[in-house]
Amino acid sequence: MKKWSLGYAILKQVVRFAFWISHKRITIIGKQHLSKSHPLIFAPNHQNALMDPLAVLCTTPMQPVWLARADIFKMKLVRPILHFLKIMPVYRIRDGKENLGENEKIFSQAIDVLEHKKQLGLFPEAAHSGKRQMLPHKKAVPRIAFLAESKNNFKLQLQIIPVGIYYSHYWHFNRELLVNYGSPINLKDYKKQYETNPLLATKQLREELSKRVKQLTINIKSKAHYENYEWLRELLGREYAQKQLSKEPTAKERFMSDQQLIGLLETHEAEHPEMWMDIHRQIDEIRATLDSKSFPVDLLEKQTKGINIILQSLLGIILTPLIFVGLIFHIIPFSIPRHFIQKNIKDPAFYSTFHFVSGLILYSISSLIITVLSLYLFNSLPIALLILISFLLGGKLSFLSFAWGKILMAQIQWFIFSKKHPQELNDLKHKKETLKEQMIRIVNF
């Protein structure tokens, strides 16, 4: 595992292409912190199952070895695949107390990776949350780091890289991704403390790492009103960022602005809990009305005019053949797995993982079939490659057209609702404006 693998490198490029296709935008911050001359431990927040290690893998030139939950190794058929993918198991109490002893061997192999100045990936939370909420950090990262350094008299120059991973949505296709690499934590800074009191040094390193990762993420503390904070971020986020910057924010600027906005709102709620009981009641009422009609909150911010609906509908008619062609060629590799996943996967945090993996497999098979058929029919490699590229990129174009069509249908339904129920719409907008003005006063923008 510690050696560079050609097969892994080839597969990684395939995965990176699929990753690029499946995202609208990928933003990387802090790549300068990744040293090739030091052994590294990547320590990201964990919210989205397999997509989190892929976010790190696809935004670095490295081949890190990952430690993952042991239950995914239960099937013998899967084990050699996971080994090829540079994944090693970590056993927890739920995996059986009799297996915990296996961790010593795994940790020894992990230390061997670090001693060869390679990279290790490990989630400090040891579980995924499926929300913009960080779970308490466990001691695995500090433990492995100190074991490696103490074995080598603190001469490894080991660095822990805190990583913040942000998704605009956890499982929607064509979402935005931001990977935020923080400044490294140097183990040599803890040498004296570890030699004097190893338990205290482990605790201090764990707390420092937790603090560093939180600084790189949007961490909504409220459990009771998590959805309301997400709703407020959607309602206020862009306008708040524009006011701060006096321009349209970049992905990085919007992330940092949202982080600041959530912090201000949470601080205000902590100081004025009674006021926020009423605020949450207002948000619940507005959200319930919108959800009952399947309207997104951004429709409340738009002025939908009849002429615009007509023009967009005409464009929709023009795009219909593209959507139809895309449906024919992509319904099997794209839509069928999505339908199966939503019906059979209970934990939404796994939606994106299963959809990406199934799509990667099915699209690889489809691409192979299309290439072979194109070579047979046209006897030309350039033509075959052109058809393959058209198939892959055309699929995303078709999806974007389909997604645009869904937005148009929502606007049409909103326009009809506004004509049939003008008073109800005015009441809803009034509630939203009253709430928004109150929020603007709270965060002072």
Give a quick summary of the entry.
This protein is an alpha/beta fold and 445 residues long.
Look at the helices and sheets and give the structural class. alpha/beta
How many DSSP E strands?
8
As residue ranges, the low-confidence spans are none
Total helices: the number is: 14
Shape: globular
Strand-residue proportion: 5-15%
How helix-rich are the residues, as a percent range?
55-70%
Order of helices and strands: HEEHEHEHEHEEEHHHHHHHHH
Task: Return the average pLDDT rounded to an integer.
Answer: 88
N-C termini distance: 52 Å
Which sheet architecture does the biggest sheet show?
Answer: 8 strands, mixed
Question: What Rg is obtained from the alpha carbons, in whole angstroms?
Answer: 25 Å
Explain what this protein looks like in three dimensions.
This protein has 445 residues and is α/β, with parallel strands linked by helices. Helix content is 61%, strand content 9%. It is built from 14 helices and eight strands. Strands 1, 2, 3, 4, 5, 6, 7 and 8 form an eight-stranded mixed β-sheet that branches. α5 (140-151) packs across α7, α11 (306-344) crosses α13 and α12 packs across α13 (381-420). It is globular, with a radius of gyration of 25 Å. The termini are far apart. The model has no long low-confidence stretch (mean pLDDT 88).
